[in-house]
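Structure, all four chains, one model.
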Amino acid sequence: MKQVRKPLADSPAVHDQVYDSIRQALITGRIAPGKGVSLRTLAAELGVSPMPVRDAVRRLVAERALAINPANKRLSVPSLTADRLEQLSLARLWVEPELAARAATRVDAGLIRQLQAIDAEVDEALRLGDVDRYMTANHAFHFALYERAGADVLLSMAGGLWLQIGPFMRVVFGRVGADGLVADRHAEAIEALKVKDADGARRAIAADLSEGMDKMRAAVGTDA
Amino acid sequence: MKQVRKPLADSPAVHDQVYDSIRQALITGRIAPGKGVSLRTLAAELGVSPMPVRDAVRRLVAERALAINPANKRLSVPSLTADRLEQLSLARLWVEPELAARAATRVDAGLIRQLQAIDAEVDEALRLGDVDRYMTANHAFHFALYERAGADVLLSMAGGLWLQIGPFMRVVFGRVGADGLVADRHAEAIEALKVKDADGARRAIAADLSEGMDKMRAAVGTDA
DNA sequence: CGGCGCGAACTGTGATCACAATCGTCCGGA
DNA sequence: TCCGGACGATTGTGATCACAGTTCGCGCCG
């Protein structure tokens, strides 16, 4: 299986595609916390050489979405601890409402429609109890909003935090089942955005996060 | 120059050493913002193959300490913009005082002594107008304190932010000269730590950052 | 039949090579 | 003198190999 040719001209770099694949798997929690992964295995699954996987993994380790055992240098998904959850919650509760507030001053009708469409998708997934789809749609909702803030530094911080907390959300919701997926504050946020109410958007997102984190905290406290 | 042997058993990985080298160069501002860098050049300077440099660079790019031109994919140190500075300031003003406050509840006499020693180094560098040494010592002071907070998620956030703002500090201080390096709030912070005054430590660090950032803001506003 | 040791397979790391794309420079023509 | 095109040098990316450490399983011995 020797492949020397690389006819891809300006197509997206392979390691970026690999990064997105793993990232998505982590955000939606398809890879369980504590689970070990390996470069060659991932490479084989994705049908590429270990090289771009190595690049992607380095990036994910830097973002703390993957951990590396200092003893044997093996890769794994970080385990959730109550302490880590607390820090991540605190950080998210600072950055994300800030992004929402900034975005509120720049919304337009198109974004409102887009958010409403995504939120419908969220509700649909919620109704069906489709955890995977819920995860993806919920992520899409938040970041469609945050991107509008035009604050790339803060946005990347939020992305990194979400990446770290993704696997745990899956564990929690997977454990409590679809019942754990109750109403969110998305509609409330959209209402605030419609009138460009920055403070209202900030509060709505803060409440949304806060409630989600409370559920996770409770679930983690029980056994993790 | 063929080297196949790798007799190093458990010595620190090469790519980590390379990472530290580049990181230090960035924090102390030895690499100017906007300046381009290349894998092979860095590798040659550090006397290693391009491979570990590639790993280190990936990590730094993930931490936004290095930027990658999406068009030609070439590497460079990110340029400072007023907008970026504002976001970084905001984020630092949230995380770092928080870390200081947490650390305050866990200080002991040893840490106090250590901080006093580092602060003396800072003052010495300040007196001599040695920007490089000042940078290093100032960084050491803050992180010796922050590490004590025992909050690794927040600590890594602070590390990432410092890494992003490092090159700019150098430019600013290099421009205004040693005169720009006036008194800091380190002594004030140490006093608060002595009595485990978390809120005092928070305020002292916040003031320290705030004043430093104001200088940078002013310097950036003039020309950048 | 139970435990233990040795070897095979798998792990991350680093080096080297191949390749396409880009940058920079120099030279020729108008 | 100035502009443009071509060619060489340099860049990042990906593949493959080499190597050392670890892990795991199978077979042999007690």
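Chain A has two domains: 14-76, 82-223.
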